[in-house]
Design brief:
Layout: H1 9-17, H2 22-40, H3 53-99, H4 109-115, H5 119-131, E1 136-139, E2 151-155, E3 158-165, H6 174-186, E4 191-196, H7 202-208, E5 213-216, H8 218-230, H9 248-254, E6 267-271, E7 281-285, E8 294-296
Parallel strand pairs: 3-4, 4-5
Antiparallel strand pairs: 1-2, 2-3, 6-7, 7-8
Helix pairs in contact: 1-3, 2-3, 3-5, 6-7
């Protein structure tokens, strides 16, 4: 992988800001200017005594820094807002370009479109897929073409990790999954996802079976994209993923639901009718009773 071009501190700040939503960047730009501009108005008096000189020098330093920062910091947030806006727009276009390959087309058309993506585009696609399922997604940028923890996510107060493998030429083996599990444990993550445009070896699948790791190959990723769009008919009509009925009731219930960690189908909100949790809501797999997996809803 090519060495990353060295950036200035200002460019680094813009890149960090672009990881927030563009609306957040605009708020930070306005807020930082108001605060820093107020600091520049502080009057620095002459030191009354020699012992007070240190405080005066420190105050003068803060005011001087604020004079420059009141323009540079808001400007960095504004540039970050522009980058964030176009990044989110690109993510949406990329996501929907894959989704245009509906089930009525050839079976592998959408998968082939996924395989043509660069590793950066693949990571963006995966992040957007989870984001549309209700997860809060943070792109760590730590993976790169060789893999790593690419996304940190949260749902119902729980942490989840994602590793992306844009591998088309060979299978993702058990070593990758085993190392990822170690990172999950070290980070106290509730669960994790390893996503590839290719496939997994049988050993990798076996290792993940009794752990909170969901393996998503290229075919399952396409299925998830279609499942999300089936739950949002205003974004894409007449798209029903295999095994999921596109009914008004289910569309309403799954619009902000997670997908099942066991079978990758949409989950629906249900209410327990008996037991100690009677009256409480939970996420249940839409494929029940075939799949009985549930996720608790924390309030």
């Amino acid at each position: 992988m090519a060495r990353r071009k060295r950036q200035s501190g200002f460019e680094d700040l813009v890149e960090i800001a672009s990881k927030f939503s563009w609306k957040t960047c605009l708020l930070l730009a306005v807020g930082s200017y108001i605060v820093l501009h107020a600091v520049t108005g502080i009057t620095v008096d002459q030191p009354a005594t020699v012992g007070n000189m240190g405080n005066v020098v420190f105050t003068q330093l803060v005011v001087t820094v604020a004079v420059f920062a009141q323009m540079l910091l808001p400007l960095a947030f504004l540039f970050g807002a522009v980058l964030s806006f176009f990044k989110q727009r690109k993510n949406k276009q990329l996501y929907e370009s894959i989704a245009t390959h509906s089930p009525t087309e050839t079976k592998n058309s959408a998968l082939q479109a996924v395989e043509r993506l660069t590793w950066q585009e693949f990571e963006m696609l995966v992040g957007e897929s989870f984001r549309r399922k209700g997860y809060t997604v943070k792109e760590t940028g730590g993976g790169g073409a060789d893999g790593g923890i690419d996304l940190e996510m949260s749902l119902n107060g729980q942490k989840y990790l994602v590793q992306c493998k844009q591998w088309k030429a060979f299978k993702v083996g058990v070593k990758v999954v085993r190392e990822f599990f170690g990172v999950m444990v070290a980070n106290d993550a509730k669960g994790g996802f390893v996503v590839t445009s290719g496939v997994f070896t049988d050993d990798a699948v076996s290792f993940a079976e009794d752990k909170d790791i969901t393996l998503i190959d290229g075919g399952k990723l396409v299925k998830i994209i279609n499942a999300v769009l089936a739950a949002h008919p205003l974004e894409k009509k007449n798209v029903s993923p295999p095994g999921i009925k596109d009914t008004p009731r289910q569309n309403k219930e799954t619009s902000a639901s997670p997908f099942c960690p066991k079978c990758n189908n949409a989950m629906v909100k249900r209410t327990a009718r008996q037991g100690t949790n009677a009256g409480k809501e939970f996420w249940g797999c839409s494929q029940y009773p075939k799949c009985k997996n549930v996720i608790a809803i924390t309030t």
